[in-house]
Amino acid sequence: QVQLVESGGGLVQAGGSLRLSCAASGIIFSINNMGWYRQAPGKQRELVAAITSGGSTNYADSVKGRFTISRDNAKNTVYLQMNSLKAEDTGVYYCRAYYVTVYWGQGTQVTVSS
């Protein structure tokens, strides 16, 4: 079955960095568009960053210049490098895959303390 497994979340001080990973199985990873979304308590889920099967990237304005999304097709893994973290970045981060069908990971908690 399809699995998207996030890892790398945790507690970090403002200004610090984290690197999230999403390992995919059960899909042809190389043809899937991948993305990271986050949801803070009481807030809507929002797109943070996306990377297409061709490697094109898009970012939410709030994270531009601080976050970098990348993919390693040989490892079936998409990454989110998060630098200069702010308290507003706190939330559950979800991995998403899309090629005809959308799949979601279970989420990983990121907490940024100020």
Number of strands: 11
Residue runs with pLDDT of under 50 for 5 or more positions: none
The major β-sheet equals: 7 strands, mixed
Helical proportion, percent range: under 10%
> Which percent band covers the strand fraction?
over 45%
Descriptive notes:
This protein is mainly beta and 114 residues long. It contains no helices and eleven strands. The strands form two sheets. Strands 2, 4, 5, 6, 9, 10 and 11 form a seven-stranded mixed beta sheet that branches. A four-stranded antiparallel beta sheet has the order 1-3-8-7, with no helix packed on it. Strand 7 and strand 8 (77-82) form a beta hairpin. The chain is globular and about 40 Å long.
Structural descriptors:
single chain; 114 residues; 4-stranded antiparallel β-sheet; globular; mainly beta; 11 strands
Question: How would you summarize what this structure contains?
Answer:
This protein has strands at 3-7, 10-13, 18-25, 33-39, 46-51, 57-59, 67-72, 77-82, 91-99, 101-104, 108-113. With 114 residues, it is mainly β. The strands form two sheets. Strands 2, 4, 5, 6, 9, 10 and 11 form a seven-stranded mixed beta sheet that branches.
